[in-house]
Amino acid sequence: MSIHNFIYHRATRLLFGEGQIAAIADEIPADARLMITYGGGSIKRNGVLDQVHAALAGRFYVEFGGIEPNPSYETLMQAVALARAEQIDFILAVGGGSVVDGTKFIAGALRYAGDAWDILARRERLVFDAVPFGCVLTLPATGSEFNAGAVISRRSTGDKLDFHSPNVIPQFSVLDPATTYSLPERQVSNGVVDAFVHTTEQYLTYPVDAKVQDRFAEGLLLTLIEDGPRALSEPDDYAVRANLMWAATMALGGTIGAGVPQDWATHMIGHELTAMHGIDHAQSLAVVLPSLLRHQRQAKHAKLLQYAGRVWGITAGTEDERIEAGIRATEQFFERMRMPTRLSGYGLDGSSIPAVIAKLEEHGMTALGERRGIRLEDCAAILDGAR
Ligand code: NZQ
Ligand code: ZN
User: Which of 57, 65, 60, 54 is nearest to 33 (CA)?
Assistant: First the structure.
């Protein structure tokens, strides 16, 4: 096995470092009819919106706030209506992954002729044009600031679905680690765990002798293990915030996933848990991943051994013992990030597992994982193992 063929292209200009928000005017056409999108108001409290206003002094813009965590289709369609009325031709997303994802949907929906829900529901690429946009990221986690994906929820139907299009890659993204000082502890944990699982989804599969991707992934995991807990214990340390921000962007920016098999079953199962029970995205991953790794330990045997040795330094014991010790170390890391790794940690007793499986089936998620070998009955067993 060797690295699969791939095309590698990144179109986003990244402006990394403290003070970079001041440079956004250079990234946005001077005559743009701009819409600024944001979430529930954290950017007003931490001064980020003031910095954006200062950078855009004299420019035309309207604002749309209120994009919620796990952004809802219902709210985003209100933004689409405002943007149409104002003839918006550029968008600036200011916030976490939910605001960036929501903005991707708005940007695509504005140039989509049919029913915008199809973009998510039809599970095929429908977005071939989008309003250009950039972002000021305030929560390192999703990698949305540097990728082509977005995840949108529809509250009325309990759906949480992703879509992908090269037309919704941001034109630019500002990564200012200082914007993350104001994050509540829970969102720091969410970001670290999400970036960790993005890495494992592209690394813990089967070997294709991809040395650069593997060692880059291991470097990201080691960085998250080293600096994730430090962001909780030393929240004012800029160097820690900077390393976490860059790690999260790189974890789902396309580099470690180029030419290697990818899993994503943990994410697909996790999305259903979030849609049904409202637990945070990263919390759902912390519940599913360890159980999934145990369930898939034969299929992932070689990479799990490599992971235990190179990431956790586990070299003693039989192969099975080393694999279990690596999975156990993963759980303990999530717990050090103050995130429970069992359904029971979120007040769930497992009685909704059949309903979660029914939603996976409804969404066509019937053959998951890097070999499409994770069937609905396997998902049920994985969730059962995570009670
Ligand atoms: O809404 P505001 O008031 O801004 O508060 C947010 C929100 O309550 C707050 N926050 C963000 N930056 C802050 C801050 N609070 C204080 N200081 C700051 N600097 O944090 C809360 C959570 O924000 P959210 O954007 O929801 O978090 P995250 O970045 O973790 O995004 C999660 C969403 O991204 C999707 C998830 O499914 C979920 O919907 N994902 C997107 C992916 C992608 N596009 O590639 C991949 C991921 O796997 C993930 O599925
Ligand atoms: Zn994720």
Answer: 60
Rounded Cα distance between 128 and 111, Å, is 8
pLDDT computed for residue 180 by the predictor: 98
Are 322 and 302 spatial neighbours (Cβ–Cβ below 8 Å)? no
Confidence class for position 209, pLDDT limits 50, 70, 90: very high
Residue 139 CA, ligand 1 centroid: distance in Å: 6
Q: Cα(285)–Cα(364) distance, rounded to whole angstroms? A: 20
- Between the CA of residue 291 and those of 211, 317, 324, what are the distances in Å? 27, 21, 11
Residues 6+ apart with CB under 8 A from 303: 203, 204, 205, 206, 207
Cα 76 off chain centre by: 19
Q: Tens digit of pLDDT for each residue in 255-283?
A: 999 999 999 999 999 999 999 999 999 99
Helix orientation angle between 211-233 and 319-336, rounded to the nearest 10 degrees: 40
Q: Tell me the per-residue pLDDT of 324-374, one tens digit each, with 9 for 90 and over.
A: 999 999 999 999 999 999 999 999 999 999 999 999 999 999 999 999 999
Q: Is the separation of the CB atoms in 175 and 249 below 8 Å?
A: yes
pLDDT digits (tens, 9 = 90+) for 60-117: 999 999 999 999 999 999 999 999 999 999 999 999 999 999 999 999 999 999 999 9
| Complete domains list, the chain, with CATH | 13-179 (3.40.50.1970), 185-384 (1.20.1090.10)
CB within 6 Å of ligand 1 — which residues? 39-43, 46, 69-70, 95-99, 101, 138-139, 141-144, 147, 149-151, 179-180, 182-183, 187, 190, 194, 252, 267, 281
Cα 281 to chain centroid, rounded:
8
